[in-house]
Design a protein that fits this description.
Blueprint: H1 2-19, H2 30-38, H3 45-63, H4 69-87, H5 92-117, H6 124-156
Helix pairs in contact: 1-2, 2-5, 2-6, 3-4, 4-5, 5-6
């Protein structure tokens, strides 16, 4: 089930990004949102880190022209998610808080790395807008995905 959720989110992110312009109103990060939602389904953190690394590697290969960039970032985000889940329980409000924190951290890291390696200039306002655009669509997606996962968990009465 974990793989299915990740694959659907991964593919849906690509489909949505084809219909939404790059500088548009919405900036999906469905793969990162799916990693946050499926974390409670894992028994071991090491397995979760493997999933995050492989997902990041696939993200690099299919959506960006970088190699291992997103794999490292997704693995770091998985580490952050595991630490935040130690403090916060697995309910919907806390998942929203974790998603907001992770999107903020992800965008700041990628923004900082773009400034370091790019010859283009980016301003702080573009970072703020990218965070807000990501929050809007990903919080909507997380509502849907969270309730679908919880419904399936209740129906089958076990962890996947």
């Amino acid at each position: 089930m974990k793989i299915i959720i990740l694959v659907i989110s991964f593919l849906l992110e690509g489909v949505i990004s084809n219909f939404v312009p790059v500088n548009g109103f919405l900036a999906p990060l469905f793969t990162l949102t799916a990693l946050i939602i499926i974390y409670p389904l894992f028994d071991e953190s090491f397995e979760y880190y493997k999933y995050a690394f492989i997902t990041g590697l696939a993200y690099d290969l299919f959506y960006t022209d970088t190699i291992v960039f997103h794999a490292i970032i997704f693995t770091f985000m998985a580490f952050l998610i595991t630490r935040l889940n130690l403090v916060l329980s697995d309910n919907y409000v806390n998942v929203l808080i974790i998603i907001a924190i992770c999107i903020l951290v992800y965008r700041v890291i990628t923004y900082g790395l773009l400034i370091l390696v790019s010859s283009m200039s980016f301003d702080f306002l573009s970072l703020v807008f990218s965070i807000l655009k990501s929050l809007i669509i990903n919080l909507i997606y997380s509502v849907i995905l969270f309730f679908v996962v919880k419904k399936i968990q209740k129906k089958y009465k076990y962890k996947f």
